[in-house]
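Re: Re: token formats

Sure, here are both.
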Amino acid sequence: VVQLLSSEELETEDERLVYESAMNWINYDLNKRHCYLPEMLQTVRLALLPAIYLMENVATEELITKHRKSKDIVEEAIRCKLKILQNDGVVTSLCARPRKTGHALFLLGGQTFMCDKLYLVDQKAKEIIPKADIPSPRKEFSACAIGCKVYITGGRGSENGVSKDVWVYDTLHEEWSKAAPMLVARFGHGSAELKHCLYVVGGHTAATGCLPASPSVSLKQVEQYDPVTNKWTMVAPLREGVSNAAVVSAKLKLFAFGGTSVSHDKLPKVQCYDL
């Protein structure tokens, strides 16, 4: 098990899976295996865990707090995590070394026509492979990947109505499920992942009383979705409402590049949300 979990060939985008596998192995026969806890913890890239998970789940785990060597391993990982979060120099510890990940490219959606198709671009075979259809055809939605799942938010659905719906594609099981709806129906928005949460930014909603939906002014509202709690929360709004902006996260910040302003002009600005 140690050889498997510590292998440089092990691929994962969520180190929690490795930690939980190690702990499940220990707990399966606790009396005989508890002595291997430090060795098992060293197979986990603990500093790659989400900070909250590391502090609230790992650092408080009773098996770890009662074992001096295990506790030291976790405390060292916390120090590495803080250096990473504070951008305080290069962290070379094994507990912070990134895992290999297998990446995939998906094609879906569009702006002109309703679409329910999802395709996988197989770079090795050099072909495009159809996958499970989106359950509800739509256009002008936004898509974002978190781990092994793809989240599509909002868009225009049936009869051109603006949607709050959130659909989730599980790339491992190749199936769709529905998540909690957004707080504001929107289309032409952007989305990005930041600290394991999904953010949707700007876009349009429906102008009041208009059917089929016609665009409102560009939105300022920004929403955060937590996949763990399946809940949406409003966060600080954009300084200027914008639609069709390019949205990306980097270094614990969310950036919205350009887009169309509330006056329907092209916006030559970059807006930044700092956690």
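Second one below.
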Amino acid sequence: IMSVFQNSVAQQMPATARLQGEIEQYLNDGLVPYTEKFNVLDWWKVAGTRYATLRKVARDIFGIPVTIVASESAFSTGGRKLKEHRSRLTSDMVEVLMCSQDWLRNKYKDAYTGEDLAV
């Protein structure tokens, strides 16, 4: 078992070293001067050739859907209301996300408790 573990660690070392070098290069490159026309997504398209792994991380972070909420609703005790023009998720997509979340929770819960549900 130890030899399998050692082989796994040895295979991962080059990727870890490459990522470390990528992070160091990114931090050493310095800040990009701010202009009003600066677009962070365009910057990652160009800079992504130098930072392949970091570009994937940035893509995952920038790909997270967000919604804007008026400040008065954040402190309201009333029900939450989301205007139609503020939501881009269709009802089908909301259903897919809710089902996926439920399936994943149950999968990890079953793995944690050692149960296996038969379908």
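Residues 2-28 form the longest helix (27 residues). The chain has a mean pLDDT of 73.
- S.
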